[in-house]
Amino acid sequence: MSTSSGSGRQQQTYFPRWTLKTSGVIMPEERLSWGQTIVSGLQHCVAMSGSTIIAPLLMGFDPNVAVLFSGIGTLIFFVIVAGRVPSYLGSSFAFIAVVIAATGYAGQGPNPNLSVALGGIVGAGVLYGVIALIVMWLGVGWVERLLPPAVTGAVVAAIGLNLAPVAVKAVSAGTFDTWIGLATVLIIGVVAVAAPGLWRRLPIILGAIGGYLLYLLIANGLGFGKPIDFTQLSAAPWLGMPSFTTPTFQADAIFLIAPVAIILVAENLGHIKAVGAMTGRSLDAYLGRALFADSLATIVAACGGGTGVTTYAENIGVMAATKVYSTLLFAFAAIVSILLGFSPKFGALILSIPGPVIGGLSIVLFGLIAAMAGRIWVENKVDFANPANLITVAVALTAGAGDLTLKFGAFTIGGIGTATFGAIILYQILTSPLARRAE
């Protein structure tokens, strides 16, 4: 009850009055010491950096611009949700296939039709914003009907399982890569379980550092693997302006890319539910704001040459591992990302992290996301003796893990979208009055 009353007092101001707490579970309206906040915020920067940089590379975007706008987008999100929903906004993988299709990108170097892709992403952001306004207008009651715990858990698990092949592929290029990835996983686990005090809250960043140094020792030092090439890192300047690009609006590209907004809504719904489950409180009151913030951040990013953004599963994984949900971490991480966006040296450093190390980090983070579904089902006492729950979850997990793709003309829905919409629709059918009457 004290938590609820405290939350009520917090509502008297737009932003929370973050209270200091240095141990146990740190809730969104609480904060660590400033030193711990800085270090934990850096951990979130590390968690988002791999995917936030890989996604633009696959589409021919500038990684530094993507990092910069991920920080700007996260601050936009932070302000619109009043600092009450812990989330980081990074590059969305949902745009990759449609951007490549719309621009004819060959897969190497800068995308020559980048501005056309940006116009389509702006269109997706606008459509996303319209959906968000509808959610804000109609309220969140319909969300509860569409996303009961059985469905929510299935969506969260599908997200983690869908990303699993990406992590496994990153550590499967050879025996050496596999062992480096597994060693990184072990370092993360040991830190999370056995490290003293503050260090136990930093398993991801320490795992990244440990894996990097181990790879450097064995590959560069002993010659048992492909050495890290520091040529680009040495040549890159510390400070420099990112290469901004403005959008060009072409109808065919907009119609091809804009429907991705539906997938972003599905992803954001799953992430908000996951964070709500971890913190033990419903965040549905901020759902409309969260969707609108994500849409606005996507529009802003695309107007300057950045990728479309989404709330990041990787950072949800960090929260699951550390039990630190303070929203101040994300404000700090956003500021750091903005500064790093103006540092080509940072981009070169991130690109020097060996793939097996990134793979090891991903194995842990994606696995934590999938495992969070179990908590949702247990805490909400989901009855798997009920065929509607059992079949819905079974189908969603298979569709997500197998990346079941549906194509509607030029528009493609990948495994996460298929699992999400499939779970929602299937559950409604199986629990409809017609189904109950047949029962």
Automatic annotation (TrEMBL):
Location of the protein in the cell: Cell membrane
Keyword entries, A-Z: Cell membrane, Membrane, Transmembrane, Transmembrane helix, Transport
Chain segments annotated as transmembrane: 65-82, 88-107, 114-140, 146-167, 179-198, 204-223, 244-266, 286-312, 324-342, 348-372, 408-430
Recorded topology in the membrane: Multi-pass membrane protein
InterPro entries: NCS2, Xan_ur_permease
UniProt GO MF annotations: xanthine transmembrane transporter activity
Pfam family, one: Xan_ur_permease
Keyword Membrane: yes
Signal peptide (UniProt feature, chain positions): none
GO cellular component, as recorded: plasma membrane
Annotated NCBIfam families: ncs2
Family membership noted in the UniProt record: Belongs to the nucleobase:cation symporter-2 (NCS2) (TC 2.A.40) family.
Protein's name according to its UniProt entry: Uracil-xanthine permease
